[in-house]
Write a structure and sequence with these properties.
- The mean pLDDT is 77.
- The protein has one domain.
- 0% of the residues are buried.
- The chain is mostly helical and 72 residues long.
- It contains 4 helices and no strands.
- The radius of gyration is 16 Å and the shape is elongated.
């Protein structure tokens, strides 16, 4: 629990390889079709802080986790 709490305090985000690959594939398809001229791999667009955080993007489970974290 101590390690889990320490990682939460530092702000470590779990890495989901399948989700990353899925996002990358979708962006590459958009680029190939010319639908999104500014498309970049997720590591450049979302991981570097360039994506704005919006609470409405969270599902109910994620909101509960965020509220629990704030309470702690």
């Amino acid at each position: 629990m101590l390690i889990c709490d320490a990682l939460n305090l530092v702000g470590v985000v779990p890495y989901d390889r399948k989700e990353y690959e899925k996002e990358t594939e979708q962006l590459m398809k958009k680029r190939l079709l010319g639908l999104d001229r500014k498309a970049r791999p997720p590591s450049q667009s979302t991981r570097k802080g360039k994506r704005e955080f919006v609470a409405e993007d969270l599902d109910e489970n994620e909101r509960d986790i965020l509220l629990q974290f704030e309470e702690e």
